[in-house]
Write a structure and sequence with these properties.
73 residues; mainly alpha; 2 helices; 55% helix
């Protein structure tokens, strides 16, 4: 199984220093940390999307120009 996780790749240099059991624990902890980060990111994204929808800050299309450009361009 190929693991494509940045946290796992960044900590790969410790693999030779750890016992197989410690390495399994390391991988499990990195998976848990990654899951918690992604869960928080997803929750926060949905919260912000809902807030924008309720406040009417949504457009029906990405191609529609913004009504008021805050930068004046």
């Amino acid at each position: 199984m190929c693991r494509g996780n940045a946290a796992i790749s960044a900590s790969r240099r410790f693999v030779g220093l750890l016992s197989p059991m410690a390495n399994r624990i390391r991988l499990w902890l990195l998976d848990v940390a990654s899951f918690l980060f992604l869960r928080f990111f997803t929750w926060n994204s949905w919260t912000l999307a809902h807030e924008a929808w309720v406040d009417g800050q949504c457009r029906t299309s990405m191609l529609v120009a913004a009504a008021g450009d805050p930068y004046g361009a």
